[in-house]
Every structure is written in C-alpha cells, then in structure tokens.
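2024-03-11 09:14:02 INFO queue: dequeued item RlpA-like protein double-psi beta-barrel domain-containing protein, len=222
2024-03-11 09:14:02 INFO validating residues
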Amino acid sequence: MHALSFLLVIKFVLLSLSEGAASQSGPVKAIGMQKYTRPHSYGNNYTFDERDGWQTANFTEFMHAHVNDSRSNIGRAFSKEQSDIDKQVKDLLGLMKGVGSWTRVTTTWYTGDDLKNPSCWQNTKWAPTDGSFACALTLEGWLGRPKCFTFLELCNGPKKCIFVRVIDTCAGCARGSKHVDLTKSAFRSLADLDRGRLDNVRMRPATHPDEWYEELWGPKHY
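2024-03-11 09:14:37 INFO prediction written
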C-alpha cells in the first residue's frame, strides 16, 4: 500500500476512535483510554548511562512501539514519507511525550481512603480510583517538586514507561525525598504490586494529552 494511501486510512480510523472523547462510552472509549494506560517502551537499544541519563529517544522508534502492527507493510523505500507519517500519526493519536532531564525517584502505590480528597483541588467531588493514572508527591522538602496538575513520565528501565498526572501530596513520604506515590494501575504498569516500592525509577516532565479522560486524570479544569 502506498504510504500516502495508508495515511488516509489511518486518519479515518483514528479520527473515528478519538472524536469526542468526552462523549465516548463502552468499547470505543476503552480503546481510546488504552493509548494512555498501556506502558510504552524505548526499545532494546536504549540503555541508561550513569554519566548523562537516558539516551536521546528516536521518535520513529518510539512510535513503532505503538503502531507497529498497523504499519508493518510500509517499505523502507518511503523513508521520507514515513517521517511525514510519523508526525501525522503522532498528531492524530494525541500521544504524550516526555521532555527535559530525568530525575531518579522512589515510587510506591496507594489505595483505599488515601485516594479521597486529592489536595491539588480546593474543592472537588472527584477522587481517583485504583484504575486512575495519577500520583501524589512528597508533601515537604522536595526542592523543585513538580506542580499540581502537571504530567510526568516515569520509567522503570527503558522498556516500562508510563504517564501520570500530579493530583495530590503524600504526607507519609519522607521530608525532602523525591517520592512518587502512584495509583495501583499506574504502579502495576511498572512492576508487580507485590514489589511495593521501587527505588530506581526515572521521572521527567511530560506534555499534556490532546484527549481527556477524567477517570484517569481527574477534572481537566481547576
């Protein structure tokens, strides 16, 4: 299939899935949410260098982790057109992207009553569930702590990475620690819940999604 024809097909399929995310329901909504709940990988060729952090991610390889199945028949001969398609597919998917420098953090998970009354809102009826992709950060002493409502990319090694939104503070996290307390689904995407605590996770800021799912991140406006 010619690359440009493929692009037209992709546009039709993805637009039909993503149009009006707020009004989606059932299977269509579940498919849309999977883009943000499925862990992403930077691939086998990416290693961590203690001197300067993660290697720079190649966007084409990053996209292949998400859309490789649907693009398996595109030939390498269309390299320039593939580059254009990568940009178009990114725009259509509304994928988030990590930006800036990596920071080493500790991660744990929380549930139950601790989910109630997220402190980033002064007054909200919403609370995250175990299925949300959200986090609470150290309450005091973390210099340069990410602000409420920002999105973060977290990686437990280069092959297990997720995006979460900051919605709460963690009073039980040690003062001055760089501690990210995750909802269960978010932590489970990085490691088994039985691990309880991960001390070698990397974190960096991330862009905001183009679509919005309140179940995952809470109210968009604050």
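2024-03-11 09:14:37 INFO annotate: The chain is about 30% helix and 20% strand.
2024-03-11 09:14:38 INFO item closed
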